[in-house]
Amino acid sequence: MAGAVAVARGTAPVRRIAVIGGGPGGLYAASLLKRLDPDREVTVFERNAPDDTFGFGVVLSDETLGGIEHADPEVHRALGREFVRWDTIDIVHRGRTHTSGGHGFAALGRRRLLEILHERCAGLGVGLRFRTPAPPAAELAAHHDLVIAADGVHSATRAAHADAFGPDITEHRNRYIWLAADFALDAFRFEIAETPYGVMQLHGYPYAADASTVIVEMREEVWRAAGLDTCDPAESTTRCAKFFTEALDGRPLRSNRSSWLAFRTVTNSRWSHGNTVLIGDAAHTAHFSIGSGTKLAVEDALALAACIEEQPDLPSALTAYEAERRPVVASTQRAAAASLRWFEELAQYVDQPPRRFAFNLLTRSRRVTHDNLRLRDASFTAAVEEEFGCPPGTPPMFTPFRLRGLELRNRVVVSPMDMYSATDGLPGDFHLVHLGARALGGAGLTMTEMVCVSPEGRITPGCTGLWNDEQALAWRRVTDFVHTSAPGAAIGVQLGHSGRKGSTKLMWEGIDQPLDRGNWPLTAASPLPYTPGVSQVPAELDRTGLDAVREQFVESARRAADSGFDLLELHCAHGYLLSGFLSPLTNHRTDAYGGSLEGRLRFPLDVFDAVREVWPPERPMTVRISATDWAEGGTDAEDAVTIARAFAEHGADAIDVSTGQVVPEERPEFGRSYQTPYADRIRNAVDVPVIAVGAISSWDDVNSLLLAGRADLCALARPHLYDPHWTLHAAAEQGYTGPGAPWPLPYRAGSRTPPTGRTDGPKPRLTLG
């Protein structure tokens, strides 16, 4: 059909369509499906009047607009005539405004957006039934080929068929209210107000020549302390204007039946049930601070219409729609969750230096990064780098960092990675090559795997140790190589004891599975097997056992010092012995080493103190912790701050902040840099250097985390397995040749990207008719 969406036409028998909800997603889906086939009968049920709307302005990205332009140029042209465009963000904090440009926004009033979509639907012959609550989805499904549930965050369709859709709804801690100002802000504005009640924030942006959306947000306890929980809408609006008089220049705010809300994150295990499908907020929500609600709904509509045209039948179309959209939505929701958490924890950032605060805010979702921001606004980024202390021409990751008497030439750490390649705890040629290669590869600090303090403290028969002098001599061979062949590189040892997670097979033979033969007895904080019915039941350490384990750590630390290691890390994470004391899920003791967190900390701190006593005073000690167990009733972020503070008070020079692996029933929130919020929180709450770990995969991520003040060092594991020279290549890709990443002399000829064959042909000079 002329002018239709450019997709391969299938044969899905979708003739009668009911749309529940007349928001942008529902209306756009209706118009697209009708435009693709004018013979379809498409009806939209909207319980409100045509001019009823909530909120004020909506923001659409260039990507979304591009999709609209291809699918329906008429709608795109109509939108284009209405848009207000701007490209700057202002961050206002403690009387200072920092402006970042190059961002590119387009917004219009929500009411005008709906009017454009109403007009388009009406022109195409879509039935618009306003002031008409939709019949139940099940009733509509019996008489229609397709039912599109676009009925929002409080979707009645989703609730009625919860057993089929499997919704998961999480309500968050901040309160917010949508308001408007009758003038146009000249940028997207974030303003922070530190009030007697606590920290509040304003998010504002223009959506017309004479109007701006203004969202006021704060923690619930601040909202209550300010008395906003007892205000009527008019009084709330007046009081919010007084909190942000600078942003408003003394002018009032207005509301549209606005009320205070707590954001709800919605996910569903399935988006379709029979011939009923969820789109937009009914299927998923993303926090307003990344401006994706309308964007996601419109993109859902585009994908659904395309899949119906492409697929041979409706079940295939709905399966394809979900397969296409779910990864995109999941990525957006991860970014939105990071942004939401940042604003929930805003109070911990307000004392940051002003430019760092602004950079931190701009990069909070991890979608805007250091490199991306440098392209958008080089002068702003350069000012942030200067405030951070970057020497001229030096990326943040190549600035040096001092821990006690050890100066690291850059901020990159090769994270501890178990190799399971030792015999009787003895490191061999494999470890020399493995660790030596990574040190040659440019990292400021290369860490060993967890080196076990006793034979019974091994995870597997392939784990390395430091319980005898032969092992110490073998480690000396490794440290000598690093110090001689990679001058300026540091090497650290991580000491640990497997606890209840020991006596298992090599990772590739069956991770966490007990050995078929040759098992050794296990000890732990409490007699709890790692996997009930599968793992060995450990013996609970008594006084004699506790003393013996502490002495094993001390003797291994002495050997580590003699072996020439520059730094020692105590492994108190991932469910191994010392971690097992810290978590309430694995420590059920009733003596002085159990119960409260203070009691659970006692033995790990005893071990730390004993090791610190024998570890050379000029050499730093760090501690790796699991900042959350990712399991109900386990260690959480608040506990992690307390644990980190305790170790810092006992002399830890940095906290290596990992998460999980404590109990098998954990439910981690995997994603890019997913563990860094825990490092960020500890760094700001305790004022101790932190090492961030967890799916940090690019040098851009490293630079971004450092500049935002979320970490002091970044530890990467798998990227260094993929590329032992990851750090040197990161320097080359950034055009950096300074002292933070020197190429070993024998490798210097390879410091530039090797040339490849040309792939570009000569450009055409003439066009002949």
What does the model show?
With 769 residues, the protein is of the alpha/beta class. It is built from 26 helices and 28 strands. Strands 19-20-21-24-25-26-27-28 form an eight-stranded parallel beta barrel, surrounded by seven helices. The chain has a seven-stranded mixed sheet with strand order 6-5-11-12-13-10-14, sandwiched between helices. Helix 22 links the parallel strand 25 and strand 26 (654-658). Helix 2 (62-71) packs parallel to helix 11 (293-310), helix 16 packs parallel to helix 17 and helix 22 crosses helix 23. Mean pLDDT is 92; it is low at 1-9.
Walk me through the topology.
Layout: E1 16-20, H1 24-36, E2 41-45, E3 57-60, H2 62-71, H3 73-80, E4 84-86, E5 89-93, E6 96-100, E7 105-109, H4 110-124, E8 127-129, H5 137-143, E9 146-149, H6 156-160, H7 162-165, E10 167-181, E11 188-195, E12 198-208, E13 211-219, H8 220-225, H9 233-243, H10 245-248, E14 261-268, E15 272-273, E16 276-278, H11 293-310, H12 314-344, H13 354-362, H14 370-376, H15 378-388, E17 401-403, E18 406-408, E19 412-414, H16 429-440, E20 445-452, H17 469-485, E21 490-496, H18 507-510, E22 523-524, E23 539-540, H19 543-562, E24 567-572, H20 577-582, H21 597-614, E25 621-626, H22 637-649, E26 654-658, H23 676-686, E27 690-692, H24 699-707, E28 713-716, H25 718-722, H26 726-733
Parallel strand pairs: 1-2, 1-9, 2-8, 5-11, 9-16, 19-20, 19-28, 20-21, 21-24, 22-23, 24-25, 25-26, 26-27, 27-28
Antiparallel strand pairs: 3-7, 4-7, 5-6, 10-13, 10-14, 11-12, 12-13, 15-16, 17-18
Domain NADH:flavin oxidoreductase/NADH oxidase N-terminal: 397-731
Region (Disordered): 741-769
Protein name: Bifunctional salicylyl-CoA 5-hydroxylase/oxidoreductase
